[in-house]
Amino acid sequence: MRIATFNINGIKARLPRLIEWLEETRPTVACLQEIKSQDDGFPADEFEKIGYHAIWHGQKSFNGVAILADGVKPEETQRGLGVDGPKEGEGEQARYLEAHVNGVRIACLYLPNGNPHPGPKFDYKLAWMEKLRARMRELWQSEQPTIVTGDFNVIPHDDDVWSPKAMQDDALMQPESRDAYQRQLADGWTDAVRTLNPRGGVWTFWDYQRGAWQRDHGFRIDHCLLSPELADRLTAVGVDKDYRGREKASDHTPVWVELADG
Fold first, then answer.
1. pLDDT score of 2
2. pTM, 2 dp
3. What's the start-to-end Cα distance of the chain, in Å?
4. Catalytic: 117?
5. What are the site positions for Important for catalytic activity (predicted)?
């Protein structure tokens, strides 16, 4: 069973690339972030044509998450974490979606960026991470095979970025962000990519600016966290880096885990 995460950075703008990736790699489950589409504009029919069934949680112009499954309909279990956005009266943003697929609980998330730091957006990021941790504790205690995956907008270690100095003032690398992420791991979750790449040096994001892709100035912010029940089944991880270099690509690249049958 292959479970992948992919911040698509606009599902309508990247739909040809997304369909291309799905057909070429055929993950069992694909978790998408930043779909940037309202619910009624989500292109579910395009995925149905190639055998994928989808659930989604959309928002106009921003955010948005979706879960696609090959040949089966994801059984939704929760959407949202009950955290209002940083603007007064904004309500909750579309950042979290959870489902059952083939006996595995899938949690797909798009964690707030937090910039500029300091400020209300960074405070919102930390509040969201605390709510996420509470939900992850519930999932962990349920003893269900569970993966929590998506764009965490956290660079966990200095060797997860091409230049720590270049990113030192960014919200993605602040001690508070890293501490919140490490507390999640300390609750019993396994960072799959880190486990099989302990020396770091694996990037999942390259900015569109300053020739970051061409210079390989990237960093790792897309993560796959496994409950103990799934960590025991982990056989491989991968980053589909080549897709970042294709025409009209997302600034992220797909990340996946391979799991043995339970």
1. 98
2. 0.97
3. 10
4. no
5. 222
